[in-house]
Structure formats: C-alpha cells, structure tokens
Amino acid sequence: MRLPRSRAQQPTSAERVRSVLAAAHSMTVVSDGLHTEVRRLDGAGVMSRIHVHAPTPHLPPEPGTERVPVRLEFTDVAPTPVRDRIRARVTVTGLLAAPYRVSDSDESTCMEFGQAVIEDAEGRAFVTLEELEELAPDPLAGVEAGMLTHLLDAHAELIPLLLRLVRTPRAVKPTRVMPLAMDRYGITLRLECSRSHTDVRLAFPTPVSAPDQAGPQIQGLLRAARRMSHPNRLPA
C-alpha cells in the first residue's frame, strides 16, 4: 500500500521533464527496431546529443527520404538507497531523418519532436515542446545527487530532525526516513514504514535560483524544526 503524497509546492510536469533531460547521464534510443544504450551524456543532458525541433509541415516525403520514428527513454533514479528508487520515467518520441547510430563525434542528431510523457507514482502527464522551450532546467538538477548523498553520508543525524516539520497521521509510523529528491522548491523525504511508504515535501521559504542557495534554505528548515515540538520519532 502506498500512502498519498504531500501536495506542497513542487515542480510541474514540464519542469520535471526538462530537468530529467538536462541531468541525464544515459538514455535508451529505440529506432529502426533497435534498442541502443547511450551512456556518454556526461551530465550535459540529452540536448547535447539530440537537437529537438518543432514538427515540419506534413508534406509527402521525397522517395528515399522517409523519416524514421524514434523513442528516447529516460529513467529518473533516486541517488539515495531508498525503497523503490525509480522516481519517474520520461519518454520523448519523434522522427529522425535516418536510423539512429551512436557516434563518438560531438555532432548532434536532429529530431522532429512528437511528444514527451512523464510517468510516476501519481500517473502520466504529457508535455509539449512549447512548454519545454519556455523553461530552463531546475538550478539544482545537475547537483541534486551530490547534495542528497552528502546530506545522507555526512549529516544523517539531521534527517530525523526534519520529521518535526512533517504532519503525518498517527497510524503512520516510519521505520526509516531518507532524502529522496531536491529541487528549487524544496526537499522531498521518503518515510518508509513496514509495508508502505509515503513521500512528503518540505518547501523552501522561497524557490532557489542557484545551487549555492540550497544550503542556507536547508539550514532554515533545520532551524524551524529545532523550534518545534513534534511527536514524530523513529523507533529506537
């Protein structure tokens, strides 16, 4: 059983897709009947390898110039060892001028955009190219993994303290609390119970616009937690 997730301020579906594409280190390309694993994105994101453009007018193609359907698949995996580490799956479909081939060159492949879909525990959402083009990646997208693992490895004793800011039903008795995600709006914790888990968001007072602003925001949450008395405790 999975408990309902918090509805505190959080990224839109388009923001999440944009950030997944920007932070991706790998992707699966499905084209011409082949599944190709691309693992050399080096944190530069898919846009460094695939140039996405708007659909062109649908005119009959010249013989021998038929476009090839392509599907780009991404898996957003939590950087921390939480239960059920897959946070979302993103799929981008479109058309290529020729079957996709992995290349060692820096030259990008031109792709006519079809649609983008994000699927997570809350369901499925479709995102348009216009929505993606209007957004910049989340400022924490490229450093989120390092920040969360540092919090867990170097300051694990602070994570239970944040539970004071979480209002959970009395029936929810977490056995473990782990940092799951961080974005410009706040940090998400995963409360793991014996047979279920729920995700709760702790919103920053104001959204951050640069990575160096995240640390002070987390310190602000910790100061607020220390001022509170809350029954949430992990079992001894």
Which class of secondary structure composition applies to the elements?
alpha+beta
Overall average pLDDT: 86
Number of helices: 4
Subunit arrangement of the protein: single chain
Outline type: elongated
β-strand amount? 25-35%
Integer-rounded radius of gyration: 20 Å
Largest sheet: 7 strands, mixed
Low-confidence blocks of residues:
1-7
Element-by-element helix/strand order: HEEEEEEEHHEEEH
Q: What number of structural domains do the residues give?
A: 2
- The number of E-state strands comes to 10
Question: How helix-rich are the residues, as a percent range?
Answer: 10-25%
Description:
This protein has 236 residues and is α+β, with helices and mostly antiparallel strands. It has two domains: 13-133, no CATH class; 144-226, Split barrel-like (Alpha-Beta Barrel), CATH 3.20.180. The chain has helices spanning 13-23, 129-133, 144-154, 214-226; strands spanning 27-31, 34-38, 50-53, 68-77, 86-96, 109-120, 123-127, 176-183, 186-192, 197-203. The strands form two sheets. Strands 1, 2, 3, 4, 5, 6 and 7 form a seven-stranded mixed β-sheet that branches. The protein starts with 12 loop residues before the first helix and ends in a 10-residue tail after the last helix.
